[in-house]
Amino acid sequence: MSVQKAPDQRGGVDNQDTQWEEDLKPFTRLPREGRRQRETPRQRVPVIIPGIISLILVVGACYLAAKFVNDNRPALSSLTFVPTATFAVVKPTATDYSPPTATPYAAPTDTPPATIAPPAGTNNNPISVGAKVQIVDTGATGLNFRKTPARAGEKIRSLPEGNSYEVVGGPKTADGLVWWQIKDSADGMTGWGAQDYMKVVAAQ
Asked: Which CATH number fits domain 132-201: 3.30.470.10, 2.30.30.40, 2.30.30.370, 3.90.1170.50?
């Protein structure tokens, strides 16, 4: 802070006033000098210290990596590498087109009906009046010789297995059977018997 003195009426400067201004100059520097004294002097860190710390960190990292590899060597050696799949692009080759051949039509043929086996006691020769028939497939019981062509007809007697008789009448259908009237030449008796137990034989 400085105070300027206006010049006197004579155009000069008062010497006493100038001396007073010079006395005030030391007091104007006191705040700045005080701040400089309060500032803490900075200490410079040597450049070698950060380098030593970095070297220690690198050595430690290398040691830990080597220890990890040694500890896990059996596990690493047991690893199996799976081959990766490779894809091969197959380019189709052009082939000559061959049109399909027409299959000739085969007309279905008529299937002959199944041959039905004749019932027991019959043969391929049909029974008719005047034919000779033989008693078959009756066993020891023989054929029931009845007065009328029905299961409920009165039984005359049994005709033995293997005997031959002459057909004199028929046929009649009753109770699901075909009946023929036959004659016993031994005594002239006539009666009815089921066709299932008769077989045509040659006349003697």
From this structure: 2.30.30.40
